[in-house]
Amino acid sequence: MTSKLVHYDPETAAPTNDIAESIETSDNQSFTVKLKKGYKFQDGTEVKAKNFVDAWNYTAYGPNGQAGSYFYAPFEGFGDVQCLDPDCKGKPKVKEMTGLKVVDDYTFTIKTTEPVSNLPVRLGYSAFSPLPDSFFKDPKAFEDKPIGAGPYKLDSKSTTEMVLSKFADYSGAFKPSVDKVTFRIYADTNAAYADVVANNLDFTDQIPPDQLVGEAYKSDLPDRNAVKESGRLTWITFSPNDPQLKDNVALRKAISRAIDRKLIADKIFNGTVVPATGWVSPVVDGYKEGACGDSCTFDAAAAKKAFDAAGGYKGTLTMTYNADGAGNKEYSEAVCNSIKNALGIKCVAQATVDFATFQKKIDDNTMKGIFRSGWQMDYPSIENFLTPIYAKGADSNWSKYNSPTFAKLLTQAAAAKTPDEANSLYQQAEAQLGKDFPTAPLWYPSTVVGWSDNVTDVKVTAFGTLDLVSIKKK
To answer: Where does a domain end: 88, 118, 152?
Structure first.
């Protein structure tokens, strides 16, 4: 639905210009963006420079409460549009960032407080989408029927499905072949899988765990399945609200070492996940194996010895997961069993009914123990696995990690003049996570998908999503 300045190649995730005609900079701090003329929103209006600037200022403005606000943190003036207190009773000084300026209808500029070498790569993420003028006139109407500038437009949405159709006036280069796409909402991944097998649903990326065993899904879906290495990572977060875990790095490392990642990868996922050795996915440039060290290597005896030396854990350790994700129950129980057997403590996998409830518990600071966490990259960069998850104040920083050393390395890496220099600094930042251990990496999931006999040219992107431009109906 939403085209951005940049588009990511479905195979490689390499960024290419989309709405942007050009993004130019001589110092990685001042950027000039020129737009292609004639690009239309789905309400018929033209996409202009102000639609980006207005959208980004709205998203960054603290009182608007937008989860994507953090992505504008590098922009000059971001701090001035933030709330002065957690409850936002103290309004920001201004409503607009000084780092954004409209030059003319098809040109705007971006200025960052420090050099940001990979900013053009980031600009294909959804937080950097433009908004039409109609959004600002009636946000509630936009909520009921969002309007973008992409190849598909929204026709209807309900609690059970969302229907999109091809946007006739789409003027971009990524035109789809399919006229209509219906997204169905399933509470049970087994039901979705059964519908794909029966050709009642055309695509799923949620293969039930029992179908992974012995690759049973390949028998159900011969020539209708694929496994794609993707920019994804799964880990456990040590709750910052748990007084036993909060300030005990040695205890967190001991618990991590008690998890038999390889056994779980083989038994639960049938090898479709690879045990993680760090906090960055292997698919991105700059990945370096081994950042987690021994703490991600299962050793029951060493884990027990370190656990006892760290003071142990009193009571029952809970691992919370959302029950609406394929395999979450099975692997959460397996993680708890591994911890229980190695450390001799009680560990219980605890379900929330769905992801919305799970996130609310995190936002309400009511989660204790450990809980499952996962990431699908927003843009193809090592930085995306570090800054949005572990920088102070980041929306996805569920561990509430706050390290001045880590923050300094991120700033230095963003300002680096060459990709190799930047990657080296980001690797040092990841190494700092290995010392402080706010989370425990588990594995790098591949995306396992199945599709019906009704479609051809099914491609899974490097992000682990279906490429709706490539897919065709028979």
So the answer is: 152
